[in-house]
Amino acid sequence: MTDSTSSNNKLQGKVAIVTGGASSMGEATALEFAAHGARAIVIADVQGEKGQNVAVSIGSNVCSYVHCDVSDEEQVKNLVDSTVKSCGRLDIIVLDLDLAAYDKLMAVNARGMAACVKHAVLGLVRIRVNCVSPGLVGTPLLKDMLGYENEEEDKVVESTYTLKGRLMRPKNVADAVVFLASEDSQFVTGHDLVVDGGHRG
Q1: Which secondary structure element, helix H or strand E, spans residue 193, and what is its range?
Q2: Which of 43, 103, 139, 152 is 20 to 30 A removed from 2 (C-alpha atoms)?
Q3: Which residue has the higher pLDDT, 30 or 127?
Q4: Residue ranges of the domains in the chain?
Q5: What's 29-87 look like in SS3?
Q6: To which protein family does this belong (predicted)?
Q7: Residue 86 half-sphere exposure, CB side, CA atoms within 13 Å?
Q8: How far apart are the first and last CA of the chain?
């Protein structure tokens, strides 16, 4: 039998909510949570079709989709309450940070985070508050923002990293989230883990 702390089973039995889990870094994080043995994963997003597709790709026995706009506190409360009711507990909640518009950014990342913490704290089995701060990640949003399409321009973005090799991808951020959500970081709290390839701004 594989030990629950083994490298491919870090989240064995845990229940997680991944906001923004229908695409990009949120989707990558949900997939990594499943790969590391999470018992239940709730994809919370406003992108219904994409969210349902991610849930199906992971498996309905493990993953479900809930429509939720985290800028609406009542929706966040219902999300957390329904998760705890159906799964019996909540171990992890992840807020996706990959947003462009400032107003939406503040509504989701500032007010949305506060709403998530406010309501999730009652359902979490153990409270550890940590944060992952990603730099420039190779996502469709980044390409839209910078207005490029090909791999040569990927190298331009990569050149801004101190750590070279390739353009940072959503999975690189998801791996950091898995670390903070797992028992490997059981004595880590109040930490902002920067995952930016040594970006030189």
Answers
A1: strand 192-195
A2: 43
A3: 30
A4: 15-130+171-194
A5: HHHHHHHCCCCEEEEEECCHHHHHHHHHHHCCCCEEEEECCCCCHHHHHHHHHHHHHHH
A6: Belongs to the short-chain dehydrogenases/reductases (SDR) family.
A7: 19
A8: 47
Count each helix (H run) and each strand (E run) in the chain, helices first: 8, 6
In contact, 45 and 71? CB cutoff 8 Å: no
Q: What is the pLDDT of residues 31-76, one digit of tens each?
A: 999 999 999 999 999 999 999 999 999 999 999 999 999 878 899 9
CATH architecture, range 15-130+171-194: 3-Layer(aba) Sandwich (3.40)
Please give the angle made by the CA atoms of 5, 123 and 14, to the nearest 5 degrees: 20
Q: Average of pLDDT values for 141-161?
A: 76
What Å distances lie between residue 135 and 7, 105, 167, 193, CA to CA?
25, 15, 11, 11
Residue pair 64/51 in contact by the 8 Å Cβ criterion? no
The yes-or-no verdict on residue 201 having pLDDT over 90 is no
User: Does 106 score more than 60 pLDDT?
Assistant: yes
Residues contacting 22, CB < 8 A, separation 6+: 43, 45, 47, 50, 51, 53, 54, 65
- 8 Å CB contact between 18 and 96: yes
Residues 159 and 137 sit within 8 Å (Cβ to Cβ): no
Task: Provide the pLDDT for residue 155.
Answer: 79
